[in-house]
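[Automated response] Your request has been received and processed.

Submitted sequence:
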Amino acid sequence: MSPDHNGDGRSLGQLFASATADLSALVHDEIALAKAELRQDAKRAAVGSGAFVAALALAVFAVPMFSFACAYGIHALGVTLGWSFAIVCGAYVFLAVVVGMVGYTRFKKVKKPERSIASARQTAAVLQKAKPHPRELEPKDSRPAVTASSSTASGTGSGS
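Generated structure:
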């Protein structure tokens, strides 16, 4: 093959080296782009999770205020203040029981991953039955085994 293969004076080796370098640069650029996108997404996720934490904190602080507002609203209807707070407390206990029962029924429906367990058991059974068959890298006759007794014996003339 002539070095002037494609008309610009580069040999096949030079073309291959150039293509390899270009491919390497392309892969590095793709990795850099992916890192930049992931970094940007991580920043967005951090800001979003911070906003959720702030919203949760505000909701936690709003619950007592809402409770007082409900109790004083019931008191405004003519119920004594103590009973008003007791009614609000009872409503929270009722809601806690309802939410707890929903959670309990959902947890009762959770089952163990039977297909995954069966698959793992099958794999373990196959692996237990498998016996390793090491192959010899070289025939036994190609070179003698080196041990302490054979090296001294071979040095003293084992050919007799």
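Summary generated for your ticket: The radius of gyration is 39 Å. The CA atoms of residues 22 and 57 lie 52 Å apart.
If you did not submit this request, please reply to this message.
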